[in-house]
């Protein structure tokens, strides 16, 4: 089994930045593609960004150019650097992991079987 724990969520003003972290433990060698998802109040969960074990990345259109996903396989961490934050980025952000080794653009929601508990990001003045 794999455990994922997110951290770094906070209240930030529009235009500000945050860096979310995801720590993996357990059977980490089984982890392939990873991703960040978010769920805003009253909305469905949506994909934010994904990264393969080799470092290939993929982003939702809404965050392209503002967010950067990265990971360190040796240290079992993944991050999401969020810049130029907007009120519509307000959501609970979740770290997700898969046993599949795919390019993140080819990873459907269903491949993600490991999930963290979420961290709250609030963008407001």
Question: What's the SSE blueprint?
Answer:
Layout: E1 2-7, E2 11-12, E3 18-26, E4 34-39, E5 45-51, E6 57-59, E7 67-72, E8 77-82, E9 91-98, E10 112-115, E11 119-123
Parallel strand pairs: 2-11
Antiparallel strand pairs: 1-3, 3-8, 4-5, 4-9, 5-6, 7-8, 9-10, 9-11
| Estimated structural class | mainly beta
The helix/strand order is EEEEEEEEEEE
**Roughly how much helix do the residues carry, as a percent range?**
under 10%
Largest sheet: 7 strands, mixed
Shape: globular
Radius of gyration: 13 Å
Low-confidence stretches: none
Q: How would you characterize the overall build of this protein?
A:
It contains no helices and 11 strands. The mean pLDDT is 95. The termini are far apart. It is mainly beta and 125 residues long. Helix content is 0%, strand content 50%. The chain is globular, with a radius of gyration of 13 Å. Strand 5 (45-51) and strand 6 form a beta hairpin. The strands form 2 sheets. Strands 2, 4, 5, 6, 9, 10 and 11 form a 7-stranded mixed beta sheet that branches. Strands 1-3-8-7 form a 4-stranded antiparallel beta sheet, with no helix packed on it. It has strands spanning 2-7, 11-12, 18-26, 34-39, 45-51, 57-59, 67-72, 77-82, 91-98, 112-115, 119-123.
